[in-house]
Write a structure and sequence with these properties.
Elements lengths: L21 E4 L4 H18 L4 E3 L2 H9 L5 E6 L13 E6 L2 E6 L2 H16 L3 H7 L5 E3 L5 E5 L19 E2 L2 E2 L3 H12 L4 E3 L15 H16 L3 E5 L4 H4 L11 H17 L5 E4 L16 H12 L5 E5 L16 H9 L10 E6 L14 H4 L5 E6 L15 H9 L15 H5 L10 E5 L15 H12 L5 H13 L3 H22 L36 E2 L18 H6 L9 H4 L2 E2 L10 H24 L7 H33 L11
Parallel strand pairs: 1-2, 1-3, 3-5, 7-10, 7-16, 10-11, 11-12, 12-13, 13-14, 14-15, 15-16
Antiparallel strand pairs: 4-5, 4-6, 8-9, 17-18
The structure holds 4-O-methyl-beta-D-glucopyranuronic acid (GCW).
């Protein structure tokens, strides 16, 4: 299958003065070689300049002593030129000898090269400052681990995949080809350094990934990833001792089970020495886990952690553990509480090579949720933030929903882990970066939104989420606009009209999607199973713990002390802020409270009127997005325009269905008419 180069689509740039003709590379490792290759390729395509590449360390040393401003040096692990020691960091500075890109390690060098390429692609004014020695660029990644989680199945399907099939697996076999390398390039270009290629729901053939049968394929894939500084991880099946090892249990404290894992890990690491480790979904949505044996999650995670420790492996253990066979009549059990209730008692009990991976919200990747209180609570446990680039609940890559603004809000959320006076730097970003507790193993993961579609992400513009996740995980200080703007320029070139309109579309997309689907934090009004399209009661009388509790007087879930008590999982002053309807941020009002339809919001509108207005306005804005996009007809390549146009058309149509289904439901249940007399069916 054909595929695009996404944001590595190097179109010729006219206005740039690039004074270098030779590069010297410290090519003592494969990543440094890649850095040189990538730079030569980009400069050739973007600037039509053929660089002479000298890959001889002795010659490089001599050249470094000369006054030769036309040379470019690619170095790493060199204290003389690196102003940061953080792994993955880089320094770009002009010296007598020429322009020096020095990574604190080889990955840092590669990221520095991609930064220089990006400056050229975006025709950034910074480029000439850097090339002429007016400014040095020093960057260090905010997060040690910057990871993608693919939910790809061995048969080639992708759980919650909206971009075609897997490019890792088909028919229970692995796929390793040119696209594997192209994928690794995309990752490295935005600073992603780890990837899990298979679904966390590990079943059937996927259980066998840790056996001889797949070692060859994995080894080849890991080698390609290694060229780009990306570590390969797998999801594993906690019941593998039974399914592969012929044991009759998988109790983490059983000696035979422990021996099975030790031996298994040795086999895996013998075959793939630089293998990263494992992601584990246990006791969650029917997956096996330690609960069956009366053990806890620390028992489970530590057993695996011990087995991978001799090889420097990591165990990333998911906190998405809740009762998925709840009775909807039960108002006390609250899925939002579950992560905290299950994992807080285990704080401090996990080995150092275990990381708990926590979804941004306590429910499940809704359009808007409160931030998981686990980030406020856990103090002695490595933590990692999991977000979802795949738009399971945010339009499935048919609707445009640029998610970086949401992720930024999560990162900026103040946990008050450092005290209720708020003096400490204790945001989620501070915690998952390792800055706050001094943790080494931590970072950010995103459920990937890619597939084998030609454009990688189904909706061309959903690539902004893929790109944006990497850039944000590398540098959490970047703004959503900066990231969007870079992505547009890299992908579509320098047309200012394209830039203006696409930026506006991206930046407005999350609020617009929220307004016609799920305002005020209510969530979940989707069709069961596939989760696309409106269905107010789709999950209301079901077992999944996802309710809106609407009746003829009001709607929303009471999570206060009088309700499920969830608010008390936060530190003060957050707990009190959420507890009261007056101080609860309105965008989360229905997440925390059961609110009468006649309740007055800060705008002076009643809740019910807000529901109507939000859905009418949202659908109208979705229509306007389509019209705005039309202005780009002559400015984009025809196939690109046609692909995106078709999505905006669909979005505009579907937003009307959302509007009408939800407004009708609430009109019928409340009996209160729309003040503006618009059509509600
Ligand atoms: O949101 C739910 C999804 C499942 C997914 C699960 C998880 C991989 O609907 O498809 O399973 O989350 O995160 O484990």
């Amino acid at each position: 299958m054909e595929y695009t180069k996404a944001w590595l689509n190097y179109r010729q740039v006219e206005q740039i003065r690039f004074p270098f003709d030779t590069i010297y590379v410290q090519n003592d490792c494969v990543v440094a070689e890649t850095a040189a290759k990538e730079l030569c390729l980009a400069v050739k395509e973007l600037l039509k300049i053929k660089l002479q590449c000298i890959a001889n360390i002795a010659e490089m040393q001599t050249a470094l002593q000369k006054d030769n401003r036309n040379a470019l040096f690619l170095l790493h692990d060199n204290a003389a030129y690196a102003q940061t020691k953080v792994p993955g960091g880089y320094t770009i500075s002009l010296q007598e000898a020429g322009l020096i890109i020095c990574g604190s390690d080889a990955n840092g060098l590669l990221y520095g090269v991609f930064e220089l390429i990006r400056l050229i692609q975006t025709e950034s004014p910074l480029l000439s400052k850097v090339c002429h020695g007016k400014e040095a660029l020093v960057k260090s990644p905010s997060n040690p681990l910057r990871m993608l989680n693919h939910w790809d199945n061995m048969d080639g399907s992708i759980e919650r995949g909206y971009s075609g099939n897997s490019f890792f697996f088909a028919k229970d076999e692995m796929i390793v080809n040119e696209r594997t390398r192209e994928y690794a390039r995309l990752l490295a270009s935005v600073g992603i350094n780890a990837t899990v290629i298979n679904n966390v729901n590990v079943k059937q053939a996927a259980t066998w990934l840790i056996t001889e049968r797949y070692f060859n394929g994995l080894k080849q894939m890991a080698a390609i990833f290694a060229e780009y500084g990306v570590k390969l991880f797998l999801s594993l099946n906690f019941a593998a001792p039974m399914e592969l090892g012929g044991l009759n249990l998988c109790d983490p404290l059983d000696d035979k089970v422990r021996a099975f894992w030790k031996k298994k890990m040795q086999e895996v690491y013998d075959a793939i020495p630089d293998f990263g480790g494992f992601l584990v979904k246990a006791d969650s949505e029917g997956r096996p886990g330690p609960f069956t044996y009366g053990r806890n999650h620390a028992d489970g995670a530590n057993m695996l952690a011990e087995a991978v420790a001799p090889y420097g492996g990591l165990i990333i253990w998911r906190c998405f553990v809740y009762n998925c066979t709840q009775d909807w009549r039960d108002y006390k059990t609250d899925r939002a509480r579950a992560g905290y209730d299950n994992f807080m008692p285990l704080d401090g009990k996990f080995l150092d090579n275990v990381i708990l991976q926590i979804k941004n919200g306590p429910m499940d990747f809704q359009v808007r949720e409160a931030v998981s209180p686990l980030f406020s609570g856990l103090r002695q446990t490595n933590q990692m933030l999991e977000v979802q680039a795949a738009q399971e609940y945010t339009g499935q890559q048919k609707h445009l929903c640029y998610l970086v603004p949401m992720w930024k809000e999560v990162l900026q959320f103040k946990t008050y882990a450092g005290g209720s006076d708020g003096a400490a730097a204790d945001t989620v970003a501070d915690i998952v970066s390792g800055r706050f507790y001094g943790q080494k193993h931590c970072g950010m993961a995103a459920v990937a939104n890619t597939g084998n579609d030609e454009n990688w992400t189904g909706h061309d513009m959903a690539a902004a989420n893929f790109y944006g996740f990497g850039r944000l995980a590398y540098d959490t200080e970047l703004t959503s606009e900066e990231i969007a703007s870079e992505w547009i320029r890299c992908t579509y070139g320098s047309d200012t009209e394209v830039h203006k309109i696409m930026l506006q579309l991206l930046m407005e997309s999350w609020p617009i999607y929220e307004s016609y689907t799920s305002p005020l934090g209510i969530g979940w009004m989707v069709n069961p199973n596939h989760h696309y399209g409106p269905n107010v009661d789709g999950y209301e009388y079901d077992r999944w713990g996802t309710y809106h509790r609407s009746d003829c007087k009001g709607m929303g879930v009471d999570r206060t002390m009088k309700g499920t008590g969830y608010t008390m999982q936060y530190n003060e002053p957050n707990a009190s802020m959420y507890e009261s309807m007056e101080t609860c941020p309105e965008e989360l009002l229905l997440f925390f409270h059961h609110v009468p339809y006649t309740w007055k919001l800060k705008t002076g509108k009643t809740l019910i009127q807000h529901i109507y207005d939000s859905h009418f306005e949202g659908a109208m804005k979705a229509q306007q997005m389509l019209e705005q996009f039309r202005a780009l007809k002559e400015r984009l390549e025809p196939e690109v325009y046609a692909r995106i146009y078709e999505r905006f058309k669909l979005q505009s149509d579907h937003s009307k269905e959302w509007r009408d289904r939800i407004n009708t439901y609430y009109y019928r249940i409340s009996g209160i008419p729309d003040e503006k007399g618009r059509t509600i069916y």
